[in-house]
Amino acid sequence: MNKKTMKAFTFKRYGKSPDLGFDDVDFPTLNANEILVKVYAVGLNPIDNMIPTGIFKPVLNFQLPATLGSDLSGVVTAVGSRVTRFKPGDAIFASIFDMGRGSLAEFAVVPENAAAMKPANLDFVQAASLPMVSLTSWQALKERAGLRPGQKVFIPAGSGGIGTFAIQLAKYLGAKVGTTTSTGNVEWVSHLGADEVVDYKKQEFENVLSGYDIVLGTIRGDAIEKSTKVLKPGGRIVSLIGR
Question: Enoyl reductase (ER) domain spans which residues (predicted)?
Fold first, then answer.
C-alpha cells in the first residue's frame, strides 16, 4: 500500500548548499497531545533562513531532509485523543520553531500547547506573522527585562518585525517607548505608539535619547555599544542577537 504524501518545502543538507525545494514527504501522523492543521499561511523569520546553515544543530533536532518554517496559521482537521482545547474546524495559529518539524507544508502537526485560537479580527496571513515576534517580544520585555508601567524602553528598528510588535506590547504594558526608523516610517511607528522617534538617516539616536530604563537589542554591529549611552544608571539591555 502506498504511503500518503504531501508537498513541503525542505532542505536536504546543512551548509552553503542546503538543496532547498518542494518535495513530496510523508503525511504526518498524530500523537495523543497533537493537532493536525491544514496550513493556510506561514510566517517566515530571519531564523528560518539560518537553520539550514547548521548554526542551530546543537539545539534543534531535525532529521534530514527537513521541512522549513516555524510560524503558521490554518484550520484544525484532526485532534489527538488527549486534546481538549481544539476540535476540527477551529482556526488556529502557532509556532513550532523548536520542535524538529516545519510549517512550510500542506499540513502540519502542532502540539496542543503550542497553538492558540486565531483572533477573529485577523486574517490567516496576519495571524501567521505573529507567533515568533510576539513570543520573542513578551519574553524579552516582560520575562527578561521585567518592564513595568512608567518605565522607558528603547526599541531600535521600530518598523521591523520585532519592532512593530514590541512597540505595541510595551505601550500595552504602560511603558514609554523610544525607537529608530527611516524617514518614510516615522509616521508609522508613531502611529504604533512610539513616544520618541529618531530618524536614523538624519540623527544619531545616542545623541538624542537619554534616561532609558531598558534597551531591547535588535541590531547587530555597534548598536548595542551605542545603546549604553541612552541608559540611565542601573538600566538593562536585553539582546536578541547574541554575540
Answer: 15-242
